[in-house]
Amino acid sequence: MKRNNSDDIQIRELLDKSLPQAPRNDWFVKKTLNRLPQKQGNTISIIEIAGYVIAILAIIAIEGNIIYNVTTTGILTLNDIVWIVSLNVALLSIIISIFSPQLRNIFQ
Fold first, then answer.
1. Widest pairwise Cα distance in the chain
2. Which residue, among 8, 28, 30, 29, has the nearest Cα to 19 in the 3D structure?
3. Gap between the Cα atoms of 8 and 10, Å rounded
4. SS3 of 42, please?
5. Short-list 84, 53, 85, 52, CA closest to 68
6. How many CB atoms are closer than 10 A to CB 87?
7. Residues 69, 74, 77, 80: what is their CA dihedral angle, to the nearest 10 degrees?
8. What confidence tens digit (pLDDT) does each residue in 50-82 have?
């Protein structure tokens, strides 16, 4: 049997005033949302940063080697152009993947 006394009512009112309200969500009721853990932002871990740095340095080293070979031999082949273009596309995709979480947060 549930018994409501004045202390319980006062505590409930105090908690209702001081706690933040859960955001509206069609999938969960308010009581469930209050029990869910706080939503974490999209952060990049140290392992991801190290992977990005290694990939960027590898791309720069390979492009530098190709450009060095072209300048020393004086011969630019179609294969060199394809490599440089594909490496620049890979570099651009890495840069986009680094900054996409920040851009997503800006435009939301």
1. 92
2. 30
3. 5
4. coil
5. 84
6. 16
7. 30
8. 999 999 999 999 999 999 999 999 999 999 999
Tell me phi and psi for residue 49, to 5 degrees: -60, -45
Residue type, 83: W
- Type of residue found at 6: S
Distance CA 9, CA 21 (A): 19
Q: Could you read off the pLDDT of 79-96 as tens digits, one per residue?
A: 999 999 999 999 999 998
Select from 39, 43, 40 the least CA-distant residue to 100: 43
Measure CA 7 to chain center.
Answer: 46
